[in-house]
C-alpha cells in the first residue's frame, strides 16, 4: 500500500498530520514511519514528564497546604464510600463488575459508531461534498481544532457541574444526529456541517466517559477496571473498520454505513443514560446510609 493511499484511507481526522504533505518524504516506508513518529512522540514525551513531576498522591504535592491536603483526603474517602469497595480487585472481578461492563459497552458502541468514519473521513468528504484533497485537508484540520476547543469546554463544564454522564449523553445524541446527517445529506453544505458536528462530539464524548471512570470505580479497582474497559473499547475500534468496509463494498457507498453508525451511537446514548440513572440511584442510597446515625450508639 502506498503512503498516499495510507494517508487517504487511514489518516486520523482532526490531527495536524492529516494535512501534512507526506510526498516530501523520500519513500513510502519513510513517510509512514515519519507519520507514526510525529503522532506518537508528543504523547510519549508527555507521559515521561508526568511520570517525573506528577506527585503520587495529594499528600505529597508540594504546592498544597496541609489543610488543603486534609480536605482532599476527606473528599476522596467520601467518594470511595459512595462508590462502594469491591470484594476483589483482580481481572476476573473487574469483568464481573457491572459498572466495568457497562462502561466498556459504552466505549465499544462509541468506537464502533465513529471509528469507521474516523478512518475514512477524506473519502466520505470527497464523495459526499465533492471536495478536493486540499479542501478536505483544510476541513479536517478545522474539525480537529473544533474538537480541541469542545474538549476544553466540556471538561470545564463537567468539572463545574460534576455530571459528566449527562454531558456525555447529550454529546452522544448529537453524534448520532451528525452521522445520520452525513448519511442522508444530498447537499455539500450539510455534509460539511455533519462532519464538523462529528468532529466536535466524537472525541469530546469519549473524553467525558474516560474521565468518569474514576467517579464510578473504587480506587482499588480503578487500574484493573480501566484495563478491562479499554479492552472492550479497543474491540469496538477493531471491528468498526471491518463492518464499515463490508457495508461499503456491499452497497457501493458510505450511506448505509453512516446510517448504521448513527443507530449504534443512539444505542450508546441510551446506555449512557441508563448508567447515569443507575449510578445516581446507588449513590443516593449510599449517601443516606453514610449520613444516617448509628442505630445503636457506641
Describe the overall structure:
The N terminus and C terminus are likely disordered. It is globular and about 60 Å long. It is mostly helical. It is 80% helix and 0% strand. It starts with a helix and ends in a 7-residue tail after the last helix. Helix 5 packs parallel to helix 7, helix 5 packs antiparallel against helix 8 and helix 7 packs antiparallel against helix 10. It is built from 10 helices and no strands.
Short description:
With 298 residues, the chain is mostly helical. It has helices spanning 3-10, 28-53, 66-83, 91-96, 98-129, 133-161, 164-184, 188-216, 219-251, 255-291. It contains ten helices and no strands.
Poorly predicted parts: 1-26, 292-298
Distinct helical segment count:
10
Helix content: over 70%
- CATH class of the largest domain reads Mainly Alpha
Query: Largest sheet, described in full?
Result: none
How much is the average pLDDT? 82
CATH homologous group name of the largest domain: MFS general substrate transporter like domains
